[in-house]
Sequence to fold (338 residues):
Amino acid sequence: MKFRRSSIVLAGTAIALVALAAGTRFFVVPQLTQLPANLDTTVRYEGVATMLNSAAIASGDIANALATNVPTTMDRRGYAVSTHGGVAIIADEVTIQAGTTALPKATHYYAVDRSTLEAAQAIGDQEVEPATGLAIGFPMTPRADDGYRFYDATTQTTTAVDFTGTGTSHGLAVNEYTFTVAGALKDKGLLAGLPPALPSSLVLSMSSILPPALAQQLEQNAATLPQALPLTYTASTTVDISADQITGIAIEQRVKQQVVANIELAGTVTPLMPVLALEMSLTSASQDDLAKDASSAGTTLLLIQTIAPLVLLGLGVLALTVALLRRRPPASSSASQL
Fold:
């Protein structure tokens, strides 16, 4: 059977369009949903801090040993150090300014799967955190369940994430998550800025700002206290996140963190006092920027993931239909006279 040349061309075009639709959906989209190799974003948090006033303690000004409600900002920059196929080395850089005091900059490095954002096996020479679970945020189209686990660099532990419901933020549908983690302080940057011990005489002079029961216990054991009391530190952190349902971008984030100094009395580790407490949220400007990024990325993903493949598939079906309808060549003039 002879076929029109135009039908053959249309059939070939139809096959190409269907293949392109499939390729867009199954090959282009996975590339778009990976962490980009040029990732570099910075957000800002604002809030208040309570912190140990080392200068006041050194001068004997015990009444002002703790500075409370100090206006504080935190800049958090995340950027890709390198990529190795489906794995990216990500730097999480945190700079905190509490009043006139700049805390030491802390940078943590993670190896993450570029699609799931789960911690991955490190590739290359960069030393990374011993993370498990999520380390830097939620992946595209985050699940609305309690199945995620989040790594906390302050304690170097991983904790369960609770899904608390859905809502809207800046006009976008979001999933609400929260998690709390507590444990021994293991962040080397924070530990470097904290004293490993305090003179016993100094601790005894601070009785007015200590819990009454602890102050009494210290007084009763004053004669047997070592000249310097070794300190250990514990940290607790609670994070609330509103993550865009399409991109996983955390449009809103609230952080409460407390670091407590502990001493050992009569063989028991006892909390002495908080040396750092932060309550911070993403600024309105950062929320606006993140919402714009989420909206733009969501639109692009919808276009590439759904609309473009459907349009290409529709054009392919149309071309194939026309090819089938026009498959036979026109009858010859001689045949038409029979």
